[in-house]
Records
---
Amino acid sequence: MLIVNADDLGLDSRTNAAIIASLERQCCSSATLMANMDGFEDACELVHERGLLEHVGIHVNLSNGVPLTGAIRRMPRFCDGDGRFRLLRGERVLRLSAEERAAAAAEIRAQIGRLKANRIGITHLDSHKNLHEEIGIFGIVTALAIEAGIPYVRRFRNIGWMTSAIKSAYRSMLNQRLERLGLTRTRYFGSIADYRYECARGNGERLGDSCEVMIHPCLDRDGNIIDRLTRWPLAELARQYDYPGTTISFSGHRYRSPSATERPSSGCEKERAKVDESKQRLLGPVRIDSLDMPEALARLDEMLAGTERRYVSFCDANLFVQAHRDPIFAEVLNRSGMTFADGVLMTILARLIGKPLPRRLPGPSFMLAVCNHGIKRGYRHFFFGGAEGVAQDLEKKLTEKYPGLIVAGVYTPPFRPLTADEEEDLRRRVREARPDLVWVGLGGPKQVFWMADHLAALDAPVMLGVGAAFDFHTGRVPWAPRWIRTIGMEWAYRMATGGRRVFRRNLECVPQAFLLMMREVWRTRL
């Protein structure tokens, strides 16, 4: 038995349309519905209209949107001052007070009740942000699932590239508890990327007997159904398996190339591409441009003078690990017009395998250099990303620092995929602003996928994904002093000053990056 479940039904009408279409075209076998989101009523109507009641479970939500009950709105652990769930909660929920437990239980019970009131049978239970993995929430969720007669609760991830031995052991403990409670249906669970990873290792047949795969259908700008996280076209994926299936084959599946919709290349650009290749270093699955700052600025000038639209990426330890985990992400990263080493591990690896780099080029430093470099050239800048008010503050800080800097526009996106109207509004703003450079501050792999997906849609020659540079240059997050950056210890400084989320991320990815680096050295030296 293979279950392919679509998350986030009820998020909004556009997501609903993508998930319902995915169910009808057998891109997925089930979906989980959020009872407290704006698209809930629309989703219920579509489920009844299309006869999909046997394919819908509940997506318990304590981390996004507006609560259904009043008690939980007064709980700072779950809600902000406006009475809305906090989208990004960094702390671990190890223990709840009696009042918090009662409020959480009342909210979950209300969400289950709302589905039943709309005659949704609830085939299974999952939670937004995998919140029921938290030990303080787990017991509440399982007790209410049994109370409501929900057949099974989604397992915790146990396939793919496991992040750490401690987390793997913790999830194994919770999965065993689900089994003892009789709330499991499959032996394995993971994302679509996790499943692909296992298939590449030859485990597809084993998993196909009893596995649940998670996808996030959405519509791209052309109306095609894609997975929001991996950008895989689900209509193509659906042709590769049937239900109930045994395995899903991902062989030959590729991320949609933006080159098909880009402007045609001229002869001089093709010739320049050959020069680009000679200046690259292959570090594991990632191609890094071996340029110093003056050469990088000169290359940027060439890109702006050409006819192709390009994006620029900066690879740190986190992206290096992600590229090893997911070949699709590595492919998208390598499509960048330029990719620079934004991390000391990358420069050490290059030196150890005999492909030294002139220096590392971090995104925040390159951003400042480009701002200064572009004043005399009249380059127009557009800032996309950051939390509310960050892009506007960045404009103010940089125009004060670099008199004559032209900021053509700013845009702060919501912490979710843009709706069709928001996408069109963004395209209009960029078109009217006529920027030469769009600076993207979304962080991690997300901004690389975003730039690749919007390459043809936005009327801008070059996009640059600079992650935390927005926060550094506005002073919201302390940037490591120059001497710390010089000796290559910026990652440690970030761990100490970046909060729990950054600390945990670096604690996981830096050791993994180091081990992967040693593996690359071993392979190269053999």
---
Amino acid sequence: MKKYQLSVLIAIGVLGFTGLIAWKNKPETETKTAAKPKRPNIIVILADDMGFSDIGCYGGEIHTPNIDYLAMNGIRYTQFYNTSRCCPTRASLLTGLYNQQAGIGKMTDAENEPGYLGHITDNAVTLAEVLKEAGYHTAMSGKWHVSNTKRLPTKQDQLDWLNHRKDFGDFSPISQYPTSRGFEKFFGTIWGVVDYHDPFSLVSGTTPIKNVPKNYYHTDAINDTAVAYIKDFAKSDKPFFLYVAQNAPHWPLMAKPEDIAKYKDTYKAGWDAIREARYNRMVKMGLIDPAKTKLSKRWHDKLTWENNPDKEWDAKAMSVHAAMIDCMDQGIGRIINALKQTNQLDNTLIVFLSDNGASAENCAAYGPGFDRPSETRDGQKISYSQKKDNEPGVETTYSSIGQRWANVANTPYQFWKAESYEGGIHTPMIAFWPKGITAKKGGFNNHVGHVMDFMNTFIEIAGAKYPQTYKGRTIQASSGISLVPTFSGKQGNGHQALFNEHFGARYARLDNWKLVSKSGRDTTWHLFNLAEDQSETTDVRDKYPEKVKLLDSLWHSWANTHNVFPKPNQKH
């Protein structure tokens, strides 16, 4: 595999720090001796739009040895939840609040209601702010996506900006950048969608990076910058908190040719074969109980793979999705190696998860505009063809895996990103901490957890304190529950009740009862008993009307007290 040796050094200005991106021909062999801090380092690695069963340790065929290493030497959670979409999940994860409480009920547009500010509210604190106050170094590499997205007055100006033709200044208010919310160092994108070879809204600290090196690939840059931060922090006696927010495998499908080649034949077997193989592996490894978690019906299964006129394109698209995850895993391996080299691994808590289920979006249908360019920097037109007559995986094609492959990626669950069914909100989550986790290595835990739990978890292990006020602002109480008891193998407990709402999709979960409705025009509630039906195959609303009434009441009570209502320009 061809590799490039390159380093880019970028000054971050008044902060006095340096962001480093390094691609190397081989791992460094020099070992630096560093005293282990009494308090653990904390690293959060967040994948973007990765399906529940994509990685090997959750049943997937994608080659993820480094993530699998974390799982085999840590804990895999079987009932861990997100908020169904990129920026809301990030807001909840960073603040320990439900996402509407944190100010991001929809996306990053600035709207006129408390739950829909489009940025993290001043009445919340971030993990970085809390841990920095407790004496931690703090850094972030990757996708921010929790600040207001700037829209220019004309579509042409927006495209010229996205196409790197014109400069319109800061990508969001500087007060909303990571370095204004507790992170000492930041390298990554302020917005969400990226061209992986030449990302828009790329900054170091607050300084825009206006040109990237030849052969740049964003996933490598994110992970190798994280490696540089680790090596820098290892020189200090202070512990560190590092947030590695991946873009992979979020559309557009773009990967390096050598990674795509590994999967050139894998997905020619088709939707059913891949899905059934994943399910069988999940059963065999003990991740799911087939008596309680059936393989749900495949989405739009009337079209068979054999009769699929686009099977060649579809197989290639899924191979790119796999390649993007594979590349991310390679970078995670370099992060693990850096921790080993600096004698930091044993006392570092690493959590790995996805922000939501795999995406069913047809990104080609969106076309250029808002956060999607129409040309590359050198003037090549970008294809948004919906006819599947272009090549997925290259910089000049904006494509995505679509509904059927998203359904496969989320095996055994139904639906996908943005929905409140398990396929949208149920994330793989791994916790690894050699010094601090005494539970059986490689085991499973059915604790009902949520991304907002990281705040209370990290506060407990760091000896930090959650503030009632911060910089003169009143701070909302955290909604999370510490995961620390699960580190010693305790099962169950967790959240008795959980809720969600996103663009009309919603759910209320009480114990094992879950009331859920889709987004769109049909807002009918459906009831499932997750103790017997984790994959939501049998609606029992008619059998248990009292449960529907109770959960509906609980959902409305939650919505009215957690900034779901009022919605922008709507009356409740």
---
Amino acid sequence: MGELKRILNKRFLLIILVLLILNALLLISFNEKGKEEMAVYDILKEYTLKNKDESNTYTDAYRLAWGQYIKDYGINKDTVTDDIKSARTLITAKAEYIDNYHTNVKEKMNFARAVLSTDFYEAQSFERINLYKTYYDLDEIKDAKVSLSNGRWLEELYAYDYNHIFILLILVFCVYGFFAERKNGLYYIIHTGKSGRGKLFIKRTLILLGLAFVISALFYLESTFILLKIYGGFEDINLPAACDEMFLLTSGNLSRIGFMFLQMLVSAIMAFALVMLLWFVLSLFSNVNIGMFAFILICAINVIIHMAVSKKTVFRALKYINMYYLMYPNKAIEYYNWGYDFGIMELFESSIIMSVVLGVLSFLINFYINARRYFTGKSNIFERIVNRIMDMISQAIEVMPTTIKEIYKILISQRAVVILAILIYIVSKVNVGGGNIYLADTIYVSEYYDAAKGLSYSNELEEVYKHFENEYEELLASIDVNDKNNKYIIENRLSVLNTIRANVDYLKKLDTQGIDAVALKPYEYDNVFGPVQNDSQKLMALINVVATIMISAGFISYEKKCNVNILANTYKNRQKWLLRKIRTNALLIAIFELISYGIYYHKISKVYELDMLGAPLKSLPLFEKCIINPPIIGFIIIDLIVKFILLVALSACICFISKYVKLIYCVIVSMFITIPQMLYMIGFEVMEKWSIGRYVAYLPVFNDSTQSITVYYAFVLVLLVIGSIIYMQFVKKGRTL
């Protein structure tokens, strides 16, 4: 019991709590955009179920439901939103899948039986064995009682990788705690005690095993609850998971909630096996940090092998019996058969067997190491090589400029690089949308923008407009305008012509004011700078704020830890030293900002067509009231510079806090500024106006017509004043830290 209390200390529980909060925020951030779509889907689903009886299909019932939905909610062509369109597409596909489920399964079985009755494949070939297995797997689910339902939450949970990553992080921290006696010098006393060897190892193994299941349950239950709140579907959790085509063979006969528990169980088992291997590897080294490096190297080699080996080669066993699936167990649950002519097995089965064998072997060997051998502290050959390399790095750093030493101190000595790497990984997962949806109207207007591309207001632009006006006149002359069937066509084309005229008039107005502007498609740019990206912009700003906290919180902590802070502050050139530290923080903040926003805008460029970044900013009506008119790319650069200035001012405030408290407490205190945004992301809409990301990002404020931009300027001014005052305090003569 004492060992359990030692492991589950306040710091460990705080880490669990922080990761649970981070997990919730990521889930909400990644899935919030599908909330409205599924709300419409659920309404259409209920209407469909009411219209479904034995005499019709789900598809027929949906057609009746759509008419009823239009009538009840007053839907017309002007009120059909993208969410409604997406919900219609989704429910149509689901209804067809459910209607044809049993027929499709039987057709697949009949096809497999027909092929097996021929000599198309050799008797002992892998392909023939695979067909047999697929046939029997289909036979097990052919009578599943599927129905139209909502299983979106399970699909998102299945595709979500962070649960297992966070579980592994917590268990790795737990294993690190098992080596605490090596650092505090109590190893020999504990190891020579009556219960300090085999019994202690067994206790720790049981703690690790129990923790694996408890932590897995916490994260999966939290994720399930959040996804159910976002997407709905609670009333359908006991229906077969096969109601969703994604899980046709993957889930077997399991219900949705049963399949969720399977994922939770598999995650716990594979996480335990992986950290048991980590424990064994760390036991081989006197320096656990070097052992961790060796373990990461082993995992990296396994992942490279998994990616490099083809599934058709004779070495494919190396691809499927691979630690990659222990790191991403949701991918191991995917239905896939692999093997050779002499045998076949599911990927799930081989992954479970591998995790059990790996866990048992690691346990047995590690038990022998802990129960029979004493820790000598001697370095093995691998450690000696690594230590030699580290010595060479240390010698190289000694002759490096002080700025490089400070960077090394922040990133390596204070391990901020780990958190920054995780933040960059999160940036790579930020949702930037699925691109612009071009409807018939939009496509026709695009013809105008293609013809007028890059033109400022001129006679040439008027000629382009005249061409489309003539087309409209020709349309009126070619059809019967009194025919009711043609009324919609005429109204639609007139609306398009008015849109084109509005753009010409907009450019004309700017031209009379002496403002440069050209014609360009606004749709793509509006999706990049407009309200569509508000949430992703705020999340990006929050990530950069957290990175700033991690970089700045250790401003003076390393000197405090080494008890040289007073000595350093008696140095006659301490002002230069402090300024250099502040500049180092600013440099790291700038590098992280460039990397993170570089990734973000690269993803944006892959989704949206931004081919006129050199055009004046006010070419976009969205920025008509903007006080500056640089090129669009210039606006992006200015935006990044302003963000950088704000982050540096924030960094100065955090550095001031670090004078008085330890690193961990400085991080905790500094993170308080992120709480309003976290509450907003969880669902407290009222906290949106207080969220730090809103003001650092700027664009969410700019796009909010209900809020005065004056609030933003006030925020910038206050933060800059406070940051400047603190900055001057650091360089004031006679100031001590």
